[in-house]
Amino acid sequence: MNSIPIIAIDGTSSSGKGTIAYKLAEYLGLNYLNSGALFRLAGHLAVVSGIDIHDHSDENMNKIVDLLLKENLDLEFIGKKVIHNGVDIWPILSSEDAGVVANTISFYPPLRDAINDFQRKRVSAPGLVDEGRDVGTTVFPNANVKIYLDASVEARAKRRLVDEQKRGSGKTYEILCAELAKRDEVDKAHKVGALKVADDALYIDTSDLTIEQVLEKCINHCKEKGIVKS
């Protein structure tokens, strides 16, 4: 058991882990971290800088690692906001396209090592709620609490559609279903940092649950593990 509590929340894309993670952190009075935003930022910086994300040679991929390290990962997580150099860039990073870009480069070990190291350095009192794809299996395998959120592709596409309509992306429900199914396939097939359920994680299917119901299950599980509201 870690002296500073760590709660790891993993799960499929659009399963609600981001919303639940920051709401749980807020309820418990802990710090919040969105690990996926770090990979999305790396991809965003690469595209903006004209680096070919499809060139997976060490020489090219190391350019992305260097680019990210030069940023010193100057990030602040406030609710769903990701503040980078004083600007909230989450509206850019949260798109499905940004997720696809991040997924294209996230397998590269040096990049994962740099981002995993950043996450571990963010552990400080009173504790941390960290959400992503392999937080409970790779980044914090000894986390005090591990939770895995999932939902059907159909339920997740409906949730994603609301966000995409706000952005005016033009993506349809059918397109989003196909994208999410493909994303699941890729996430689970990665040789490094694959999406999977930790043996000691609480599995929650959020398909037919409200945010409040999922949050309640997570809070109760934390209480069972000895983590209570500060």
Could you walk me through the main structural features you see in this protein, from its secondary elements to its overall organization?
The chain is α/β, with parallel strands linked by helices. The chain has helices spanning 17-28, 35-48, 58-70, 90-93, 96-105, 109-121, 135-139, 153-167, 173-189, 211-224, and strands at residues 6-11, 31-34, 75-78, 81-84, 87-88, 128-132, 145-150, 202-205. The strands form two sheets. Strands 2-6-1-7-8 form a five-stranded parallel sheet. Strands 3-4-5 form a three-stranded antiparallel sheet, with no helix packed on it. Helix 2 crosses helix 5 (96-105). The longest helix has 17 residues, at 173-189.
Supply the CATH class.
Alpha Beta
> Structural class per helix/strand content?
alpha/beta
Oligomer designation: single chain
Give the helix tally: 10
Topology diagram in text:
Elements: E1 6-11, H1 17-28, E2 31-34, H2 35-48, H3 58-70, E3 75-78, E4 81-84, E5 87-88, H4 90-93, H5 96-105, H6 109-121, E6 128-132, H7 135-139, E7 145-150, H8 153-167, H9 173-189, E8 202-205, H10 211-224
Parallel strand pairs: 1-6, 1-7, 2-6, 7-8
Antiparallel strand pairs: 3-4, 4-5
